[in-house]
């Protein structure tokens, strides 16, 4: 029944199932097909377009994801997912190869008074962008700010601490790097980053 009024909703839920099965490519195709069907209720269209952008990003289609996120933000001005979409737009811009343009998009997410996951992740990604742009001192400032200011997000504190240690290694500041990694291990001993930090210490000591 290709003309069924239920088709867009069926495709959306099929896409949701494929996301749970970790099949982003098929999920993307379902969401893309659903997005092309006119006349969907706004709440359904909102969900379809958000998921389409996420599936595009997860499939490595960053240019397409950037366009979909931008269209979402323009159309759904009252959506509860606007911060998600704004972060998605910034990340898609970065992953599409333009870290310079991504940084101001991340800054917009940090400009609100409240702190949430998108605030912390945006600061982390700004640091990553600055690393790719060889702005190492500026990157350290962002990573250290995460270490100090966001105890409610220990996962991202650990990731930021690891990035600082890696930058110290790149600058041949081995003693400082070892100190950074040891502090990371002490603070976040159960984390994946602690395991990686231990490996970096062994790598430095084997030189």
What is the topological layout?
Blueprint: H1 7-20, H2 24-35, H3 42-58, H4 62-75, H5 82-95, H6 99-109, H7 117-132, H8 136-149, H9 154-170, H10 174-187, H11 192-205
Helix pairs in contact: 1-2, 1-3, 2-3, 3-4, 4-5, 5-6, 5-7, 6-7, 7-8, 7-9, 8-9, 9-10, 9-11, 10-11
Please give a structural write-up.
Helices cover 76% and strands 0% of the residues. It has 207 residues and is mainly alpha-helical. The N and C termini lie far apart (67 Å).
Shape: elongated
Alpha-carbon distance between the two ends: 67 Å
Q: Report the mean per-residue pLDDT as an integer.
A: 96
Number of H/I helices:
11
> What portion of residues belong to β-strands?
under 5%
Sheet/helix structural class: mainly alpha
The succession of helices and strands, N to C, reads: HHHHHHHHHHH
The level of helicity is over 70%
> Which stretches are low in confidence, meaning pLDDT under 50 for 5 or more residues running?
none
Rounded to the nearest angstrom, the radius of gyration is: 20 Å
List keywords for this structure.
single chain; 207 residues; mainly alpha
Summarize this entry quickly.
The protein has 207 residues and is mostly helical. It is 76% helix and 0% strand.
């Amino acid at each position: 029944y290709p003309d069924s009024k239920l088709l867009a909703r069926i495709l959306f839920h099929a896409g949701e199932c494929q996301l749970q099965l970790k099949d982003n490519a098929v999920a993307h195709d379902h969401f893309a097909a659903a997005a092309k069907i006119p006349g969907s209720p706004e709440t359904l269209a909102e969900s379809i377009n958000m998921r389409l952008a996420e599936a595009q990003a997860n499939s490595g289609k960053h240019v397409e994801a950037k366009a979909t996120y931008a269209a979402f933000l323009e159309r759904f001005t009252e959506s509860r997912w606007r911060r998600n979409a704004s972060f998605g737009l910034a990340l898609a811009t970065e992953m599409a190869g333009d870290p310079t343009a991504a940084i101001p998009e991340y800054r917009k997410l940090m400009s609100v008074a409240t702190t949430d996951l998108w605030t912390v992740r945006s600061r982390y990604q700004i640091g990553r962008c600055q690393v790719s742009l060889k702005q190492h001192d500026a990157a350290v400032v962002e990573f250290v700010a995460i270490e100090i200011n966001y105890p409610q997000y220990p996962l991202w504190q650990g990731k930021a601490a690891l990035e600082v240690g890696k930058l110290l290694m790149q600058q041949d500041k081995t003693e400082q790097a070892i100190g950074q990694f040891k502090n990371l291990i002490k603070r976040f001993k159960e984390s994946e980053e602690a395991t990686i930090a231990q490996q970096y210490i062994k790598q430095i000591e084997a030189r």
